[in-house]
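Task: encode each sequence below as structure tokens.

Item 1
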Amino acid sequence: MTYERRFNLLNSKFKELFFPTLLAAIAGNFAILADAFIVSAMLGPMNLSVIQSIEPLAQFINMIYWLIGFGGTILATSAKANFEDKKGNYIFTLSLVSIIIISVLIMVLGLLFPDSYLHILSNSPDLRPLIFEYLKYYLLAIPFICFFIVLAYFIKNDNFVQLQFRGFLMANVLNVVFDIIFIKYNMGISGAALAMVLGYIIATIYISTYFFSSKRTFKLIKIEFAKSMRCMLDICKTGFSSSSIALYQSVKLIIINSIILGVFTNVGLVAYNMCCNTLLLVSIFIFGTAQSILPIITVYYQEKDYNGVEYVARKSLKITVAFGIFFTLLFTIFPQSILYVFSVSNPSHIPTVMNAVRIFSLSLLAYSINFLYIFYLQSIQNMKLANITTLLNGLIFPVAFVFIFSIIGDENGIWFAFLVSEIATIIFIYLYSIYLNKKTNGEYSGLFLKKHHDENERILEYTIRGNADDAAGLSKEVREFISDEKKSVFVSLAIEEIVDYIIDINDELDWIDVIIRDNDEFAVISIKYSGIGYYPKEKPDLNSEHVDKLRDISDNIDHSQILGLNNTVITIEKK
């Protein structure tokens, strides 16, 4: 019987991460919409303008925790995948310490110099007193929001997915509940901000129970200032591509708003605002998908499991395309649905806004693909291409095409410019993949830049069920595959006994992935599974002559536990 890889283990892990991450993204963004709805309904449109005025500061805070959160988790997860636990723990500790320092500094500066913040946020003297009432409490929430979200990113990668989801749900549900209570009892717009503070304080306390779990693999350790500066620079470089999305969005809004005002009256800005709201709604689902693949692809890419990386990337692409097609059809056929959600009721605005949303929605499928691709590039740590793609897609292409179409086209041309911008990004990605394939003589291929192993290296991949019969069948396959005849017999027997022991110590074990790479210099055997781990080097509690001999001839035996998966890697050099 031939045991080929069926990706059952990987598929199971993807589902485990995908749904809670998607639900957490929905919960967080739903609370934002609910906040706006509650404030508008209970306090009126003037107070809703306060929340909109705070948005630049909120976007800046997003940039900070995305920069450290995504950058830190990618580097820490990569370190764990490379069996560098101390480095992973150092990055984990540094990320938490730095986000606390930065967020507290932003809060303190805001409390000491509120007028400086108010002048940046609003030019209206009438609105500033209301903004201050909201701002003074919002500033108190910033350290809790930043710490909560950065910690949430780490614990998801440490297989505490449900804790992360429940934390997000708790923060946002409490925010909405306290909104209603505080506003109802005449606290006004300050009550909405206080609701956010209390919601995140309680959720932060809850999610911090992670530190008391014996199952966690990320540990807090001592950090050094000089080393921290170098490490912090790496974290920022790694997280910049995703965090810069908010930066480019802010700059793009300013430029495109001015272009639209030159073509339309104010109704053009209303229409563009509805297009942005449409994009926000779609982003919830795409962001959830992108966050799901980030830790998996980071781990598997570091382990040089390029087939596993491609499997997750293609699966994520299918989900993203499905979301993109659904929302494209929904808002193209029924553009009035987004108008209803955001209460556009002015009869003179409705025709223009519906037309804009209908045309703009044609870009949603391509936008979804590009958004996913940026996070994919970040996962494989191709930061140069990720930063270029983010800059082109987030700022240069949309601004350039909106400007060009505003000159050579009619009013509809501006909305078509967003479709052309997204397609231009896909064309750039496609042309770059062709260029890289030719430059590396086929080392990288395809849209996802799949990396291939050396031609002299043979790869064998198996998925077996957690039973003794499949372990015996695997042993035979290993014996026939390893080129060194002297070592192949006892190595195959040792692998069989290790797999049998793993099966014995786990009550339920569905799937085990075994990958073997064999070349003239070394053979590498990787055994990946969920459940209770077995480390042949540190826990030699399996009494076996073959396993003892395997330890003797192995140049390295490493074991890691990340994403809830155990990975034992045995390296045998050929002398």
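Item 2
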Amino acid sequence: MTDGFSLTEEPWLCLPSARGGPAREHSLRTALLDAHEFGDLVVEVPTQRPAVLRQVLLAVVLDALGRPADEREWMSWFSAGRWSPEQRTRLESYLDAHGALFDLFDPVQPFGQVAGLHTAKGETKNAGLIVATAATGNNVPLFASRTEGDVFSLSPAQAAHWLLHTQCWDTAAIKTGAVGDPKAKAGKTTGNPTGPLGQMGVTLLAGTTLFETLLLNLPVGAPPTSADLPQWRREPADPRSAGTPAWQERVPEGLLDLWTWQSRRIRLFAETTDEGLRVTRVLVAAGDRMPHTPETEPHTMWRLEPTGGRGTGKGKAGAAPPRRPLRLQPGKAAWRGLDALLAPERQSREAGQTTSGFATSKLLDQAGALALDLGESYPLRVELTGVAYGNQSAVIDDVMFDALPLPLAALETDSDVRSAVLEVAEQAEQLATAVSYLSADLRRALGTEPIPWDKGQRPGELVLHALDPLVRRLLAGMRGVEDLERIEAGQLAWEQLAWRRSWEVADRLLQAVPVGAFVGRSVSQGEGKPERTHRVSLAEASFLKRRAEILHRAAAVRRDTPAPVVQ
């Protein structure tokens, strides 16, 4: 008989002290009750953080305490800096009452799994199947140091993290057909989408302690309905329960259902080894499917689609709303998406139409509404996490993560800080474009074609890389800044540094040009049109003009500053 592993009592959450010091593993009970004493959750890969927060920590807080009815009540919770004695008692009572449901290896109701899940032939897979960073199946390299047949061992703490991760981010396509799945054919279930988080860019808010992070990710509003339950509190007889191999396509009942969504039916197989209890085999089968990401989802930004007078999806049950979760792009820094991060939802009052564009996450909207109460110098951090899937979403190509310091004043629609940071992000993009144009003009002077926009690395990307630390420094420096004069001074300092950094990249391109390009090359523009000449001097002059137009403050200072007198 396999020993149990209680997530409420056994250490498995790696947390550092809020006062500094090494991170140590703690139980769910300790992590929640003493959340004010801990810093950020430490995980093996960034995609585990939203999985653990949503599937366990936030769901327990919401189910045990409900959520603040409005911003005033939310602020009263937050300003205390820790749970009140009454809240602490309710959390303890909740964990005492439901602690048995958090046993990872319970024979009747294992946490996040289906007891007795099996295939017709009793097959299981290597435990590496649920480890996103491990190559399994056809993805194992030909000359790798291990093979698919080697034992992949996970400690119970590791298995808990990867179990939650699989429910949120698992790849799509074919899954093992379990006995009891009415839609399984020939031992397989097809048409599986990715996990729910894999279909969006996850936007988490982080504070200075775990307690603050939990509250920053807890939206205000009405308490959960009686039908909205976390997965561990659903009775096995409930048709929405994830405790059986059968699954269905449905819409989440509410936040608790959404956060603890069981997109897969899983069973962990543990055995006692010389190292202790270890998970060595797993079974992953099809799970519940969402027709679309619901608008109640608080952890994503949105891309809005224009809507006219006609309804979308009229007469079609479960039709997608006129908005889609915004997905992250590999290699793109978070500050390059400030237009979406800081975008309030704008609705036209004419004919009920929605303006196309972006809408930020509900939680960032909420933080913006609380900016004055939190204090505009509050060190808010926004974490963006996403996954880029490969062939038919059956493999993971890339994991994207970026953390961005965000001044709370930037979340206010009409603030000067908001205008400043959006202008800075736009200037960086324009500088990158200007350098790419310079590269194209230099290549034309050599008689070659410019680099295609969708192939190779464009020189503009080098500019964005060089400007990245400058933008982040400015965002951090804008915290607590309200005076317009100081904002302008910050923008001028940014432009002066960007002036130099962009030229360093441009100068490298100019230095690499062979002598022949300085002579230039004339190209016919068509019958009756004058020839166009491409040469290095013209390309350089065009770039310098563009840079001066983009960085207008720095250019004005340079024009007004007299040149040094040479004695």
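Check on item 2: The radius of gyration is 27 Å. The longest helix spans residues 416-445.
End of task.
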